[in-house]
Specification:
CATH class: Mainly Beta
Number of strands: 8
Structural class: mainly beta
Mean pLDDT: 96
CATH topology: OB fold (Dihydrolipoamide Acetyltransferase, E2P)
Low-confidence stretches: none
Distance between the termini: 6 Å
Shape: elongated
Radius of gyration: 12 Å
Strand order of the largest sheet: 1-8-6-3
Number of domains: 1
Strand content: over 45%
Order of helices and strands: EEEEEEEE
Largest sheet: 4 strands, antiparallel
Amino acid sequence: MREPIIVPDLGVADVVLSVWYVRPGEVVFAGDRLVELLLGSATFDVTASVGGMLVEQCAAPADRLTPGQTVGFLEAPG
């Protein structure tokens, strides 16, 4: 089952994707860090909601993102 990785609502209009912690094809567990977002001088890690494999990155470092935007997809077993 494909699960989207979504930018959460952090109370700002936009954030910047800083770094991906995993690459497509890598397996992650629920709670693992996937991506770091920059909010001015602060950072926020988006974690995996489910375990699975990262199958697609839809955003790259330095991209400006908005709340609710999909940055990638995990393929969860089942």
